[in-house]
Amino acid sequence: MADTAFLRIEGVSKTFGTFHAVRDVTLSVAQGEIFALLGGSGCGKTTLLRMLAGFEEPTAGRIYLDGKDMAGVPPWLRPVHMMFQSYALFPHMTVETNVAYGLKHEPMSKAERADRVREMLDLVQLTQFAKRKPHQISGGQRQRVALARALARQPKLLLLDEPLAALDKKLREHTQFELMSIQERTGVTFIVVTHDQEEAMTLADRIAVMDKGEVRQVGSPTEVYEFPANRFVASFIGSITTFAATVVGREDGQLRLKVADFGTEVLARDVAGITEGQAVTLALRPEKITISQARPEAANVVEGVVKDLAYFGKDSLYRITLPSGALVQVHAVNARRGDEAARVADWDDKVWLSFEPGAAIVLGD
Amino acid sequence: MKRRPTFLLSMLAFGFAFFYVPILSMIVYSFNASRLATVWGGFSTKWYAALWSNTKVIEALMLSLKIALVSATIATILGTLAGIALVRMGKFRGRTLFSGLVTAPLIMPEVITGVSSLIFFLLLAQWIGWPAQRGFTTITLAHITFSMVFVTTIVQARLLQFDRAIEEAAMDLGSRPWQVLFDITLPVISPAILSGWLLAFTISLDDVVITSFTTGPGSTTLPLLIWSKVKLGVTPDINALATLMVLAVGLGVVVAGIIMNRTEARRLADERLAYRTNG
Hints:
The complex is a heterodimer of chains A (365) and B (279). Chain A is an alpha+beta fold. Chain A folds into two domains: 7-235, 3-Layer(aba) Sandwich (Rossmann fold), CATH 3.40.50.300; 243-363, CATH 2.40.50.140. Chain A has eight helices and 20 strands. Chain A has helices spanning 45-53, 95-100, 110-123, 139-151, 169-186, 197-203, 221-226, 231-236; strands at residues 7-16, 19-29, 34-38, 60-65, 68-69, 80-83, 157-161, 189-194, 206-211, 214-219, 241-251, 254-259, 264-269, 279-284, 290-292, 300-311, 315-321, 327-333, 350-355, 361-363. Chain A has a six-stranded mixed beta sheet, sandwiched between helices. In chain A, strands 13-12-11-14-20 form a five-stranded antiparallel beta sheet. Chain A has a five-stranded antiparallel beta sheet with strand order 15-19-16-17-18, with no helix packed on it. In chain A, a hairpin with a 5-residue loop joins strand 17 (315-321) and strand 18. The longest helix of chain A has 18 residues, at 169-186. Chain A is elongated, with a radius of gyration of 25 Å. Chain B folds into two domains: 39-233, MetI-like fold; 239-279. Chain B is globular, with a radius of gyration of 24 Å. Classes of the chains: A alpha+beta (365), B mainly alpha (279). The interface between A and B is medium-sized, with 33 and 25 residues.
């Protein structure tokens, strides 16, 4: 797949003086895919995006789009358009002329151009605002103008820089699904840059998790959440509690681990590349742990005391102290109803924690 | 009841009086019937009538306007280009020198600028025979050199708070850098360019020092005319002329204020419209 991929990023690095913004990134993206670059600020995701747009040239490495080497191709000649984080609408033009701006470089008649603009405004449901100026419409509408403008020339690749960051929570959810449906209808390949894991998880087909200029893992939302490749990815996506552990042995395709904080041995899902006797990290997601008052019949059982709990209504978050003093976060859905029944346990209750071997993540680093 | 800060108020009154009593007395004495500028001889508008029939004054006014118009326009074009170069072209070779050269007239004593311009024009006339005579051209050239810096400064300040993403977006949509300049950058900063032009125009219109060094026989601008007349004693027609200038400037400020208030009110109305139709 790597050689025939629609977008290929091969060993791309970018340095600004002595600062390495992007280090040796290799990625391939299929046509029609929504691909997310996820990471905190300064992880290099925006620099990578700007290299795809042509605003920055890689210090090393190559970028191929649809088989063509993009090296030295200026932004105005790339079939790549960008939706800027600030939207970057032209303040002195109307919504209509904003959308039409890129089309003046296309060999098309006036009527064709007007048709395309109408079609685009229709796509983002802004036809009635065509004659307004950018400061005469709301933030959500501005975002849609930016999208229509970037899509008008039918790019091969659409880059979206933090597309939902400037919108309020309610509008974000709505816009998220709208973006996905527009992507489906137009078939354009989307590259989304975001620091928001939820945004990446819901929007993207695949996610590249970045840290300090490097790609730490590439995979579907399920893969990066359920099968994180390293401690960075495990802790960056969702919340997680980690413990130092040692591999004692292998049995029935599972790893037997000795965890000092638990005082017992536990079973975990086997991971390739882990050897017996190796020091590893055991990572547990709060929602994969079951909390109960009576000792349950399960493969992995640990004893603890409720130190703290936060009631959110539909669910509760518990902080459990283990005998060793270590803290574990546990998430429980409040399925029962009533004043007392809503909670599984109360402050200072002695409880039992259990988890499936398949839900225990073993990390080699 | 809050006690009035008497001291502060009286200081304010004193300050305003210091600024405006001279102007007020000038306006009052422009309606003086007496020939003597400082002796009140009854109300009259005859000095205004005398002004209109004075061809020298009208000629000087026309020359001043012509110089201000041409020099402000050329200074605006050059000053805008310099501002764009300083903000947009990054760290090019000789940037510091260029920046210093552009802003030097701002701190250079006017007399120095005037003298050096005069020497330059004289040497030029010796070497290549141009300018054969000092007058409109030489004054205009000198005015361009010292008013350009004001345009550059205003344009530079505007460009520094300009969202570069707007220009990148235009480039991203297929426009080459020069197209971006004409399609996006210049239209967006046009208010700053206009105010730069206005400033250059005003500065050129009332310049005395540099003009007096670069002028030649027969080229008397309005400020020079007033200056030469005052040397022979302040006469009421000068008061009348100055009053008209104050009136013109005051009117300009008021009109500009009204226009700015209106655009601000429109912007607020637009914003309300945006919120009403939100969604």
